[in-house]
Amino acid sequence: DVIVHLDKITKRFGSTVAVDKLDMEIMAGEFVTFLGPSGCGKSTTLRMLGGFETPNEGRIILGGTDVTSQPPNRRDVNMVFQDYALFPHMTVGKNVAFGLELKGKTRSEIDKRTDELLEFLQLGGFRDRTPDQLSGGQRQRVALARALAPDPKLLLLDEPLGALDAKLRGQVQVELKDIQRRTGKTFFFVTHDQDEALTMSDRIVVMNAGRVEQDGTPEELYFRP
Ligand code: ADP
Ligand code: ADP
């Protein structure tokens, strides 16, 4: 099933064309990575999907609905950032529960879902800790748990491993791919790191100057002569 259709979207900033008539479909359950050098339009694409930027032209269809002009909070999409953006004064449990509270879930629904996710992400023993009592990899998992909690259609990840040291990054790459596979969620991942893209993705979209340069599986791209 097609979950996202980017229907010829263009985004300009003054005379800069950040994204140029991008036309593609993303399938439900796909781990798709946008790869390319700084300034090629990856973040702008992600921000348009999240509703933080509006395209000048084209439409964004999410789950069959035209969301092009919908604000972020009306879209069934969540984001994970490089700096985690966890609330430092809240416990792990409260961080994960936060998005569910905004959605007006009942206390027992919130507790159930929070426990479920913390177990799933092997954070069961950390519920009452604050983020400063966790390692970088654990914080990243809390951020992921929080983003997954409301069960969004699409998860947007903007260089989420950038803050991790090289050793931990390899481990978290494997974990992240595993979490994506087990949840069956659609992940839209942005990175300039080719190894990261090759390790995790079902599909890699190589961007250059606002356009798609290559689009295929890691095998198709990697073994191309
Ligand atoms: P990437 O994420 O691949 O590094 P971006 O999407 O951030 O690329 O940027 C694409 C192009 O758009 C760059 O030339 C960048 O300078 C420009 N750009 C992005 N955001 C803005 C903005 N808010 N105002 C002006 N130019 C921007
Ligand atoms: P990245 O390179 O990690 O994609 P950037 O540092 O390019 O991110 O962008 C960070 C923020 O700055 C974004 O909100 C983006 O819209 C904005 N931005 C990027 N390029 C420009 C620019 N040339 N002028 C103004 N704002 C920009």
From TrEMBL:
What EC number(s) does its UniProt record assign? Answer: 7.6.2.11
Enumerate the spans annotated as ABC transporter domain.
4-225
Which catalytic reaction applies to this protein? ATP + H2O + polyamine-[polyamine-binding protein]Side 1 = ADP + phosphate + polyamineSide 2 + [polyamine-binding protein]Side 1
Q: Which keywords fit this entry according to its UniProt record? A: ATP-binding, Cell membrane, Membrane, Nucleotide-binding, Translocase, Transport
Top-rank taxon of the source lineage equals Bacteria
Report the GO molecular function annotations.
ATP binding
Kindly report, in one word, the top-level EC class recorded for this enzyme.
translocase
Subunit architecture: The complex is composed of two ATP-binding proteins (PotA), two transmembrane proteins (PotB and PotC) and a solute-binding protein (PotD).
Family, as annotated:
Belongs to the ABC transporter superfamily. Spermidine/putrescine importer (TC 3.A.1.11.1) family.
Cited function: Part of the ABC transporter complex PotABCD involved in spermidine/putrescine import. Responsible for energy coupling to the transport system.
> Can you name this protein?
Spermidine/putrescine import ATP-binding protein PotA
**Native species:** Nitratireductor thuwali
Q: Which residues of the full protein are shown?
A: 6 to 230 of 362
